[in-house]
């Protein structure tokens, strides 16, 4: 038994997880202990004892979610573990953590302006060693009750936890340089803010956006917040965005822990090992400076927490992210010599072909490429090892993944290529040359801003006060810029400048009249931004505008009372007697909310709910509402006057906001500390909500049961209802629909309700007209209920929404065929065919004009109609194709505009069948062809592409034609590089006689062109249904010859290769465009 278990063991690095799985599955204790002994002796030599997961008398519990923490975590019970000096396991942990922290923070390595503590909990012990090294400390936690507990200690409120014993111990560790009272006072002064934090958000402190900190600290947080290694990795990456490059991360916690207990409540913990921590930090771009770990000494109280060891890690952020885009690289690579150490992928760009070719020459190590060796050696010398320049050279070559054309004066500088937003942008001596005037310069900065993620960095290097520069014998003009102009333009583009360095040129130069240069580091704002903000119920105050003015060009204040409006006007005009807001401005480092308006303006709950619906009309779909309100308040006092307010609870506010069409993104609640003479409110809440943008709410499935025949008064309304609900469903999604037939009434109690009398054909027609394909239909002759309650029969329909639809489809490389249009004509109003050769275009035109000698497509048309459910409708299908094909154009995919000289509006869909492998001579041309055709497609549009794999040639009659040898991976890479996301791909093997072709496989895939969003993401929710129903879905069964589909070998005739590929294509196209059930094999020679 034991040997059979050992034989199942996977790779040795996964042994800990395997052991845990075996324990959970209930394997024998003896086998476990013996196996653990074998493993620890043979596989894990040199690793810490507590790095192996030891079998215990419990199983791994389910992950404890945030909602459970909010309800069940009691900070008072948790703090009972921190009564220091009891000689317990808690003291063991505290002594280890505090000794390590004191050593780290007193070493002089960690100093700076700001430290952010992630997941502070209700504790401050971890901040005691740090308060002497950082001026500003920001405490954060996910739980409101923990934040309140820290605030209570900072403000010395009654009931705050007594940390004096821990403070005394820290002072002893530091050599009693200050008294306990001085240490506590210093920490209280250092804690500037206590914020909410969620490590699973890309900005963990959202909606607040802070400048990057010098240091991050986190103790016993991530093991509770993360349920597995994937979420741990994401959390580290999110935290990294809060830290400066070169800044430090200090982590402390427990190893080998699966749970801890607070009173009767049990909370899960992710099992951390040294390996998980080291790998996670390395992947997130951190270099470990120091790793301290010790096994658990006290074996008591294992029922309260089962950790096996403790750890403290000091790490440095060495990498900023995955991708850097360099705008205007020119022919040089020197600026990548440092960047290659921090980014896995570098994308170089330039406007001129010769600059891009020069860089490609160096990357390919071609003769005549510029020699960058002296610069390499100098950079390596700066980094401490001059002799490592060959490694540096190769690292740069590996990092530069693409060299693209770029035009910063265009809204999409890299068009037609669309890339996911990068982590960092860099531009050196480019924008001042590319822009003719200041408005163009400002616009260019906004354009390139779209290429970087919110929170990402921008490094800009520019010359100052320059009118010209000379290269060889040519003089080039330059946009005259001053430092202030550059900084203002960068800020207007949505960046926050972190630092600027300027140098002045002392020597006169004959090649430029520049007076100096500057380099700046900026960060793209990740907060709420836009053109216009409307403040509803401003009152006489302006404090909420102090942060908003950084994010909006225009602020519109509004209020019901004239006196409030006049007070604000007085401050705006700087009149004597205007209120002095200076203290508030100095305190603006803390977030201020929106106004207290609705609870005063609304007399009752219906009016309150209506008010939200009213203000919703002022806001764009996708726009934000920032709302601040009192809770459980009946009155407030201003001077001698007392004003009543609408009594509100948090749940009432949330419900009213949601009913008005908003999605609540974040909500924060605090308790009130004002005296009863001013208000009786129990608290306040602030929420951030986003107006529902309907396009975002599409679902995978709709269910409707006995609804429409009661809701619709006539057949037109009934048909319209199906079209309306279709907008809620993703393409390819399903509708499950139950209805009565031939019934005109039903009863509920004593009441009788009329229903729309329907026949089966009416229902089917309405479903199809709304863009659905009926997959199955079940009809029962009668209800199993008495006629006194209802009459009629039952009907059940399962339908699927058409896959791809739109106005225009462009077919790239149509050839002499039309079979690819037989399904597409059902989904597109206009089809534009295109091909490179005149004879192919003439052959299709002959069929469209119904000329004699045109190829007979009838068998194929009948087959497609059979797939769609009615073989006899083939004459209608032929006419529909003829009406849909509006034009047949010349096309050359190797040109930037394949349809030149024509320029067409972007299409909804591109289709290409067996074209590119014949049109492209090599892989670079092949990749370029995808980028070229991408310009013909709308963002979000689809590309349906059909190709051979591993083919060198094919025969047509006596003529042999060469093709580009392609593998599946090469095709996928080319498609992704052109800015597409592959949604589905299908591959099948083929057996073609060598006398006709040597292709081994056929593949077809569906891809979607990336749509850049304001938030920076490039993602698609909708995925197309799988092709599991296709008879060709098996990759192991080769497709056998099915004979000739048509007679004769006319110029438009099909050879054997085309028969196979077209059969495969027809099945796929029918499924994609019409989504019918695929239950028919391709036609045989007898068809």
UniProtKB/TrEMBL annotation:
<dbReference type="Pfam" id="PF01234">
    <property type="entry name" value="NNMT_PNMT_TEMT"/>
</dbReference>
<dbReference type="InterPro" id="IPR053384">
    <property type="entry name" value="SAM-dep_methyltransferase"/>
</dbReference>
<dbReference type="GO" id="GO:0008757">
    <property type="term" value="F:S-adenosylmethionine-dependent methyltransferase activity"/>
</dbReference>
<dbReference type="InterPro" id="IPR000940">
    <property type="entry name" value="NNMT_TEMT_trans"/>
</dbReference>
<keyword id="KW-0949">S-adenosyl-L-methionine</keyword>
<dbReference type="GO" id="GO:0008170">
    <property type="term" value="F:N-methyltransferase activity"/>
</dbReference>
<keyword id="KW-0489">Methyltransferase</keyword>
<protein>
    <submittedName>
        <fullName>Nicotinamide N-methyltransferase</fullName>
    </submittedName>
</protein>
<keyword id="KW-0808">Transferase</keyword>
<comment type="similarity">
    <text>Belongs to the class I-like SAM-binding methyltransferase superfamily. NNMT/PNMT/TEMT family.</text>
</comment>
<feature type="region of interest" description="Disordered">
    <location>
        <begin position="1027"/>
        <end position="1048"/>
    </location>
</feature>
<dbReference type="InterPro" id="IPR029063">
    <property type="entry name" value="SAM-dependent_MTases_sf"/>
</dbReference>
<dbReference type="GO" id="GO:0005829">
    <property type="term" value="C:cytosol"/>
</dbReference>
<dbReference type="GO" id="GO:0032259">
    <property type="term" value="P:methylation"/>
</dbReference>
